[in-house]
Structures are given as C-alpha cells and as structure tokens.
Amino acid sequence: MVRRPWQLSALTGVAAGAVTLGAAELLAGFSARVGAAGGTPSPLLAVADSFVDRTPAWLKAAAIAVFGTGDKSALLVGMALVLTAVCAGLGVLAARSLPAALVAFAGVGAVGTAAVLSRPGAVLTDALPTVLGVAAGLVTLAALTGPRPAAESPPQGPGRRAVLVWGTSLTVLGVLAVAAGRVVSSAGEAVRAARAAFVVPSVAAPVRVPAAADQGVPGQTTYLTPNESFYRIDTALAVPQVDPASWRLRVHGLVKREVEIDMAELLAQPMVEALVTLTCVSNEVGGNLAGNAVWTGWPVRELLAVAGPLPEADMVLSTSADGWTAGTPLEVLTDDRAALLAVGMNGEALPAEHGFPVRMVVPGLYGYVSATKWVVDLRVTRFADDAAYWTTRGWSARGPVKTASRIDVPSTGSLPAGPTTVAGVAWAQHRGVEAVEVRVDDGPWRPAVLAAEPTVDAWRMWRFEWDATPGHHTLTVRATDGTGEVQTAEPARPVPDGASGWHTVEVDVAG
C-alpha cells in the first residue's frame, strides 16, 4: 500500500463520495426529467427529507428559531459537512484496510438507497441512480487507494501527486455533477411557463383594502405582505413542480360520493377573494413568521358539499404533491369562514414555493394543520382514526391561532429622547383584534391607536405615541381579541400548540 499523508487519504474518500453523489444526482435528474421516477430518486434529497420526517418537534422549533426561513439551507450545508467528514474518514480507513473501507462505503450507500425507497410514491427503479453512483464511488476509492503490496515489495498504486490531482479533479467534477443533476431534474421550465401564462380568475366581489388599514409608520410592516417577502416554512427541500395541466384533486373517505376535479373544473367554479393572515406555529413571540395577503380561490366547503361528508366525520386529511399531510377540523372547512382552495396570491398566480397551482388557506388555524401547499388529496376522516405529519411528531391536533401582538418599531437599540412612535401588528385570526395596549417599564397599560380592520381574518396595525425620556426602558405590548379575551402573559414555547407571552423590546434613550 502506498504510504501517503492522511490528508491525501482523506481526499481519496472525499473524491469517491463526490463521484458517488455526482453520478447519482445526475442520473436521478435525468430519471425525473423523463418521468421515469415515481418518488424522489435523488439520494441527497431523499436522505434530507427522511431526516426532516424524523425530526422531533422540539428540534424543528429550535431550527426555525435559529435559522428562520433559512432552515433548509442550513440542513443541506450541515449534510454536506457530515458527508464530507464521513467520506474523509472512509478514505483514511481505506489506506489501512481497503476491503473494510469498501464495505463501509457500500453501507453508507445502502442508507441512501433505503432513503430513496422510503419516499412517497417510490418505485424500485428510483434506487438505480444511487446504486450506480455507489458503484462508481467504490471504483474511484479502490483506484485512488491502490492495491495492498505483498510483503517486502515496493509501494504500489498512484503516487502522491497523482492522488492530489485526480482526487481534487474528481471532487470538483462530482460537485459540478450534483449541481447539474439538480438543474436537469427540474420540471420547472414547463411549470414556470404554465405559471407565467396563468390568469387569476376574476371575482364578483374583489377585496378592497382601505387606506386606513395601513398606518405607514417607517419600519412597521406593510399591511399586505409582498409575495416575495412572504415567509416560507415547509418540509419540501426541493419545491414540488406541479403542472396545472396534470393536476387533480381527489375527495374521498367518509363521504357519500367520491369526487375528483382537474384544473379546468376548478377554475370554472365561482371564485372569491379573501384577506387572510397566515401564521406558522413555530413563530416565536415577536417573530416574523406571519404574513398577510389577498387570496383568490374556491371555498373548500363548496367542494365538500358535493362529496357529502358522513355524520361521523370530523377531520379532513389533506395531502400535498410531496406526501406531506395536514389534519383540519371538518367544521372550519364547512362553516362560513373563507377557507379556500387558493389559486391566486395578491392578484398573481401562486408562487411555486407557496403552492402553485393550488393550495389551502384556512383562517384561524396555524399552517401545520391547514395550509397545505400543492394540495392533491382530501380524505374526509376522523381525528380518532388518522393523524397528520406534525401531529404524529408531538404537535397538537387542532392548532387554533393564539392572540399575538408584535412591536416592529422601535427595534432593540438606542434612540433619541423626545416624541417616539411605537408601532406594530396584532392578530387573532377569525376573532379579530379589539384593542392593543402598550406599557413602558412597569407603568400603566395605555391604549394604542388601531388602524382600520377590513376583516377579522387578517392582522391589525397599531401605533402608540411615546415621549421617550433618557435612560433604559422596556416596551411591552398586549392585545385583546374580538371576544374580549386579553392576550396571555404566560410564556410558552411553540411546541406543541404555538408560542404565547407578551413581546418586549429593550431600548436606550440618549440624554
């Protein structure tokens, strides 16, 4: 065996890993592109998705608290670092025992293969890219390591310079192949063209947001959240690309009759617009995982009325194109609230990352039990018989939104003494916001000035004029919902049914 520094041995393992992933991702990309894949042929995405699926509630909440909407990028970076370390270790092992390293390398490949076959809709051929990629990696590791020499024989295998050149080159090529595989796999061209051509249907009674709903305080959130700024929290590492031409929505389960509609049938229905604030259950007190938009769609209750839920049903299990599920109480989908099968967002077709071509929007519930993107299936069932994706991981089953309020300005820091505007938003979807109060330090609660409230299903903006005096101060806000219930001061973490407590901001006022 060639004696070489451990760093070069590690490089052989990294190169073998890069070749494996590069070949597998490229082949998976072509497989997805030609429609030969049934599930997720990419081992990189399959392993990441499997990790997300097995993430406990507390770890999910912690990741979102730390990384926010960058949680997926953080996961992929973390995976890359772990894989690099593992492959480097296998390279060092190969320098001592090539057979043992090859067996261990194949074991890692088997994990990736198992992850691919575990994804929703997977077929046996989905594993082929990973198997072929692992084979290419094994050949690379063996070739760069070289055969074990017989006793007393001179070193065999590629020299240090050759290992450095080939190892580095293959690593770079592997990384480029991974990137190319992700590009090739995208069905995005057809879907992007379909979205560009999509015309949001007109409605009989369009939403008109009064100017008085937006206070326009610098630094305060805008009343309507632009589509590009709307928060995104979901489990899809690769945004599902769903062609509206092939989209179908099936309603089945505890119903009098099964129903299936396509896009043309959906768009032929009388559409409505609704102003709805969506909130993620992982939003911390004072967090920004909430957004407000005008949604265009068909009321879910109309579709369910066609199917005819049976008396014993109390839940609808909705499923997205990537297999994610949400369990929504049947009563909130059949009452008079604006629960929609949405096709438009702020007058535009849904962005792909927000569920194009069709998603669910349900006022008053956190997204994890209602806001299914890329929705393709509605199963009418019972909470006693079925559980959705996050409820099997420790989150509560029904997820009503808690009353919340947030200070947008001033932010924590320093400001000059004198007249200061404190402003923010408050929400209690489907109950409305009746009052907002602000407290400076331990002083009395004082009422804030509320902006207009076009609907109880959306947030409400508020402002409070404060004569800031020099020194360190704590600003606290609380809201009262439309039923007269005051926002609780009791702090709670997001798990299992949403965060609670009063938002505070610490400021230093200059003398």
Q: Which labels suit this protein?
A:
Immunoglobulin-like; 5-stranded mixed beta sheet; 19 strands; 23% strand
Account of the protein in words:
The protein is an alpha+beta fold and 511 residues long. It folds into three domains: 6-186, no CATH class; 211-393, Sulfite Oxidase, Chain A, domain 2 (Alpha-Beta Complex), CATH 3.90.420; 404-509, Sandwich (Immunoglobulin-like). Helices cover 33% and strands 23% of the residues. It contains eleven helices and 19 strands. The chain has helices spanning 6-33, 43-53, 57-67, 71-96, 98-118, 128-145, 160-185, 188-197, 263-267, 300-307, 330-334, and strands at 248-253, 259-262, 272-279, 290-299, 315-320, 325-329, 340-345, 348-349, 359-361, 375-381, 404-409, 413-415, 418-427, 433-440, 446-447, 449-450, 460-468, 471-481, 503-509. It has a five-stranded mixed sheet with strand order 2-1-10-5-6. Strands 3, 4, 7, 8 and 9 form a five-stranded antiparallel sheet that branches. A five-stranded mixed sheet has the order 12-19-18-14-15, with no helix packed on it. A hairpin with a 2-residue loop joins strand 7 (340-345) and strand 8 (348-349). Helix 1 (6-33) packs antiparallel against helix 6 (128-145) and helix 2 packs across helix 5 (98-118). It is globular, with a radius of gyration of 27 Å.
H/E element string? HHHHHHHHEEHEEHEEHEEEEEEEEEEEEE
Beta-strand residue fraction? 15-25%
Overall geometry: globular
Question: CATH superfamily of the largest domain, please?
Answer: Oxidoreductase, molybdopterin-binding domain
Number of domains: 3
Radius of gyration from the alpha-carbon trace, in angstroms: 27 Å
Low-confidence stretches at least 5 residues in length (pLDDT < 50)? none
Class inferred from helices and paired strands: alpha+beta
Averaged pLDDT: 90
